[in-house]
Amino acid sequence: MKTSSVLSAAFALTLAVSFNLPFSAIAAEEVEKSSGVAEMKPADAAAMSAGEVKKIDKETGKITIKHGPLVNLDMPPMTMVFRVKDPAMLDQVKPGDKINFVVEKANGALTVTQIQAGS
Ligand SMILES: [Cu+2]
Fold first, then answer.
1. Which CATH class is domain 43-117?
2. What is the number of helices (H) and of strands (E) in the chain?
3. Could you list which residues have their CB under 5 Å from ion ligand 1?
4. How confident is the model over 45-66, as pLDDT tens digits?
5. What distance in angstroms lies between residue 15's CA and the mean position of ligand 1's atoms?
6. Hey, which residues does 78 pair with through a beta bridge?
7. Are 78 and 108 in contact (CB under 8 A)?
8. Mean pLDDT of the chain
9. Which residues contact 49 (CB under 8 A, 6 or more apart)?
10. What local confidence, expressed as pLDDT, does residue 42 receive?
11. Based on C-alpha coordinates, what's the Rg of the chain?
12. If pLDDT is split at 50, 70 and 90, which confidence band does 106 have?
């Protein structure tokens, strides 16, 4: 071991000992704070909605989906028409498909930004 390593190890040890009490106090406080956040849901899970494709209109870039509750838009289940962000998304699905999708409000229009095969 080089002299400098020994010195920095000794310095680190000194730091650890001298700050031992404050560190313990901070750690205990962090545990208390985090226990209150445990029930939060991940944002991604809330944004993904379930639905069934009813109709596809490739010419206008629109899709009709019988959807479940849209949590992020505070919308109850219904059948409605959405725009799609990219017309190529309409090639991935066909009427009758069960899907999971993400819908966002873009320029005042409800737009489907992601589609995945659902179950
Ligand atoms: Cu709706």
1. mainly beta
2. 3, 5
3. 75, 78, 80
4. 447 899 999 999 999 999 999 9
5. 59
6. 67
7. no
8. 78
9. 67, 68, 69, 70, 71, 72, 100, 101, 102, 103
10. 47
11. 26
12. confident
12-49 pLDDT per residue, tens: 565 555 555 555 554 555 544 544 444 444 444 447 89
Percent of the chain whose pLDDT exceeds 90: 50
The structure tokens listed for 74 are 């505070």
Amino acid at 6: V
Domain boundaries, the chain: 3-35, 43-117
Which residue's structure tokens are 């639905």? 51
Beta bridge partners, 34, equal: none
Side-chain half-sphere CA neighbours of 103 within 13 A: 27
- For residue 52, report the distance from its CA to the centre of ligand 1, in Å: 12
Distance in Å, CA 91 to ligand 1 centroid = 22
Q: For the chain, what percentages of helix, strand and coil (3-state, to nearest 5) are there?
A: 40, 35, 25
Q: Which two tokens stand for residue 99?
A: 């899907």
Pairing type for strands 98-106 and 48-57 reads antiparallel
* pLDDT the model gives residue 5: 63
